[in-house]
Amino acid sequence: MKWSKLLVPTIKEVPNDAEVPSHQLMLRAGLIRKLASGTYIYLPMGFRTIRKITEIVRQEMDAAGGQEVLMPSVQPMELWAQTGRNVDYGETLGHFTDRHGRENVLSPTAEEVATFIACHEIKSYKQLPINLYQISFKFRDEFRPRFGVLRSREFTMKDAYSFHASEECLHETYMDMYNAYCKIFQLAGVEYVIVEAETGEMGGSGSHQFTVPCETGEDVIVYTEDSKYACNIEKAPVDAVAKAEPIADAPAIEEIRTPSVGSIETVCEFLKAKPQELIKTLIYKTVDDEVIAVLVRGDNEMNPEKVTQLLNGKGCELANEETIEKVTSAKVGFAGPIGLAEKVAKVFIDHSVAAMAIAITGANKSGYHVKNVVPGRDFALEGDNVVVADIRNAVEGDTFEGKKLLFKRGIEVGQVFKLGAKYSKKMGANFLDENGKQYPCLMGCYGIGINRIMASAIENGHDENGIIWPISIAPFEVIITPVNHNDEEVMQVANDLYNELKEVGVDVIFDDRPARGGVKFKDADLIGIPIRVTVGGRGLKEGKLEVKMRREAESENVDLDEVGLRVCQMVEQLYKEITGE
RNA sequence: CGGGGUGUAGCUCAGCUUGGCUAGAGCGCUGCGUUUGGGACGCAGAAGUCGAAGGUUCGAAUCCUUUCACCCCGACCA
Prior knowledge:
Blueprint: H1 21-28, E1 32-36, E2 39-42, H2 44-63, E3 67-68, E4 74-76, H3 77-83, H4 85-88, E5 94-97, E6 103-106, H5 111-121, E7 130-139, E8 154-164, H6 167-187, E9 193-196, E10 206-213, E11 219-224, E12 230-232, E13 254-257, H7 264-271, E14 279-286, E15 291-297, H8 304-310, E16 316-318, H9 321-328, E17 346-350, H10 351-354, E18 359-362, E19 368-373, E20 386-389, E21 399-400, E22 403-420, H11 422-427, E23 430-432, E24 438-440, E25 442-449, H12 450-459, E26 462-463, E27 466-467, E28 478-482, H13 488-503, E29 508-510, H14 517-527, E30 531-535, H15 537-540, E31 544-549, E32 555-559, H16 563-579
Parallel strand pairs: 3-7, 15-17, 17-20, 28-29, 28-30
Antiparallel strand pairs: 1-2, 4-6, 5-6, 7-8, 8-25, 9-10, 10-22, 11-12, 11-22, 13-19, 14-15, 14-16, 18-19, 21-22, 22-25, 23-24, 26-27, 30-31, 31-32
The chain binds one RNA strand of 78 nucleotides through residues 10-19, 34, 36-37, 89-92, 108-109, 138, 140, 142-144, 146, 151, 157, 200-202, 209, 218, 412, 415, 447, 449, 481, 483-487, 515-523, 525-526, 534, 536-539, 546.
């Protein structure tokens, strides 16, 4: 490819609506342009990278037994109503009414359509297992798109759906996908960690998330200091904290007037106390309308997923004002644990609360708090409807199985789920087994964010001059930069080398623009082509060209007739570093 | 959806507080010349419904009202 024929609008200045490095560099390098909030145009250079990534994904998916299909991105709302996800997905689900008044969904993922295929085409265990995948645009009407293509409304995703007759078979494909994902991220040249994850909206029984560690990531992963265990923060288990030394003859509880302070913050300020001296009492309502109370320490956050687990999978959400006032006989902000167990279906108490020697809580009376509350003395820590458990988010300083928990931010680039029969049951995707008995297919689903791989590669691969691509996903492998565009010999040598490299299958771009050397060097660095060959009159006098890796500071001088060979060696070397062979 | 901020040339921004000459700068763009190994220099030039609508005023980029878009923090989210 000749640069002069390619649309590569690089810019010097940083566009003001870009904050994270990947977003800034993608704009500056002319890879993308914004069309509207959260929607981006991929220009030729950017799209070349997208294509390289999708090609890696396609190869590995095929190798792992996947079959590529293409599903519609506009899907009937009725299909989504069958699984209830039209409601579960909430506002994030993009939709529109067509001219016939039919409601349509803009696909954010495609479990329903995949299951539809199984409904109609899978009849027998003999057809299983099967693994269908597609690489296509997805749309999610994000409340707040941000960080460029890291959280955009429209994005390219590889999504795969597998169907099975048995749990073992599902597990086998799940592991095949798990391993294929490792290969894919390795080949794409991004560092990744695998963590246990929550299934969230998807539902199902097991999930792993593939995350690229980086400071600008939106996800927080938690891992033990020996790195033996890692998981998503929503899932992170924590050890019970040591019980504080009980205070000998702790004073009796005492009501204190705390007018018009309700939040932890204002109570602390008012009483000159620290959040960790308070107990936060939260009133929740389960999906089947049971009222429950949840107690966590003032400086902790309750974890809804953990509570849901304790409720045998029943979801819950914060109760409304009316319910709270009824249960606590006080305005919101003054709930406390004393006497609460009789009024609610269940009380969940976090280990850290049970471990407190003495605490401040709400008084279940508007405008009052209580101090000198001793857990176990003033409210029960056991009983029919009282459970002490791990129900909060992990924080700095926590341990798991005695090992310190560490936190790291990351970008989620892929996730694998065991869905089980959630979708097949609801949609009637059944098969007949050897005995002619009907069962719902067991399903797995597996997603990869293509654009996120691209952005995370840049987040972890750049310097002050621009992008430093892994060679496998760089827009080009090699760039030839002639320095003196009106020196015939220079241009001729550059052009010959270009043809030579093209001939042997190197993905090479020839910067044939009539620009000054400095401009071309800056652009080449900005775009981040891994290997650059500089052709200039200076070196040519001695029959040499300069070959330089983008990531290295120094270049090497190579004899003119050996340059082709040397470049091929370097390309090979860079690929070997990635594959580890 | 709550809080904050910004909309002036293709990009980055000044001008707005305190209304008043023809609305500016740098970068980019076009032409000519000189340059030519790390974002060159000179000269000439094109380029703007000052986000939109309404209002106040003799006069509005500037003040008021409404509205739209975008960005940031939060909530939410694969």
